[in-house]
Amino acid sequence: MSDGHGPTPETPSGWSAEQPPPYSAPPASPWTAPGAQQQQTPYGQPYGDQPAYAPGSQTPYPSQPQPGYGYMPPAPALRPGIIPLRPLGLGDILDGTIKLIRSNPKAVLGLSAVAALLVAVPLAIGQAFVFSAMGSALRDPSVPPDQLTSVYGVVAQYGGSLVSYAVQFVVVTLLTGVLTRILGRAVFGGNITAGEAWQLVKGRIPALFGVVGLMAVIMLVPMVVFVLLIVVVSLNVSDSGGVGLVLGLTVLFVIGYIAYYLFFRTRFAFASPAVVLEGKGPIEAMRRSWHLVSGDFWRVLGIMLLTSLLVGIVAAIVSVPFTIAGMVFGMLGAGTAVNAVVSAVLIALGATLGAMFTYPFEAGVAGLLYADRRMRSEAFDLVLQTAAIEQQRQGWVHASADELWHPSNSAGS
């Protein structure tokens, strides 16, 4: 008879059946099917794809994959500057654009403010004249608004707009080039002054104007064709049926032209960055942009439309109060020089503040979309990462970083 301490045939290890030895197998789980075998760890715990249950609940937790032994999460992408050096999402592009403005506010916002002011002044003068004439007509309705119908009135109304558009053509083109060069250095974490950026960009100005000029021709051709078509229709159709036909053609043209504009605006969105950062000519830059957009047209279009919507809302919030104040001053103090000047100043100030954020934001999004497309289609992120590691080792961003944007440096080329 055993005292419970010696080995027995039933318990050869010396432990009784009532007192199981340590690390022995636990009793079978009530949730295991009869006859099913469980693999055991060295400590008697089951492993494998076993369901887990909440205490006191009959419902199992959802099965979640667990990382294996030695699992290491992927290292975050290098971010020496305004963006991580990997393909970018929408949040990365918007955040990078904001960081571009914040990292170099004097150059970015200062240049944008000057450009916006030059564009806004001619338009503000014309609008102030119109508001003054409207105020005179409201105070004395019996007097015809000769100020609006006279030669000087027509020149003030439309001349200001034409001059503003001409100035915008020149100023915004130059601003886009300078901001793109600043962005190219900011991707690596380097800062560059407005003067330094201008010295790097001024040799590319003719090519930039070439791109803008070609884009203007592409956008104006359908309008010229439409005007000629309307003239032909008006000359060959009777008055009774001509009005309805002209209205129908106008509606169809507007719908078609919107699609036409968005298509070519998206296809050539990266032409300016290609001119400034890659040193290409106008036609080559437009071909380069067309190639980069291919395969991701709808994403590029969507981001550009969203950007236009966002900056439009911000610009309206900033500029509308000044525009309303200028209109009120112009209409209430019609005929006085002081009120006309105050009205023009308020309108110009509102337009300047709105465009001061609109110009750099749109240029920044276009530049970062360009970088994203190169990283996705040409593995350009590998080039940027290699350069960033070397710059971190040296402790500064050399001006030669600008040369990395040349397409010959792309890993996929």
Any chance you could write out the topology, listing elements then pairs?
Layout (H helix, E strand, L loop, with lengths): L89 H14 L1 H35 L6 H4 L1 H36 L7 H8 L3 H32 L2 H29 L3 H8 L3 H12 L3 H36 L4 H42 L1 H15 L19
Provide a concise account of the structure shown.
With 413 residues, the chain is mainly alpha-helical. It has 12 helices and no strands.
Query: Which spans of ≥5 residues are poorly predicted at pLDDT below 50?
Result: 1-54, 56-62
SSE run: HHHHHHHHHHHH
Fraction in beta strands: under 5%
The largest β sheet comes out as: none
Helix run count? 12
Total number of beta strands: 0
Summed over residues and divided by their number, the pLDDT gives a mean of 77
- Helix/strand-derived category reads mainly alpha
Total tally of structural domains:
1
Global geometry: globular
> How much helical structure, as a percent, in the residues?
55-70%
**Cα-to-Cα separation, first versus last residue:** 87 Å
Organism: Nonomuraea polychroma
InterPro entries: DUF7847
Protein name: Glycerophosphoryl diester phosphodiesterase family protein
Domain DUF7847: 91-357
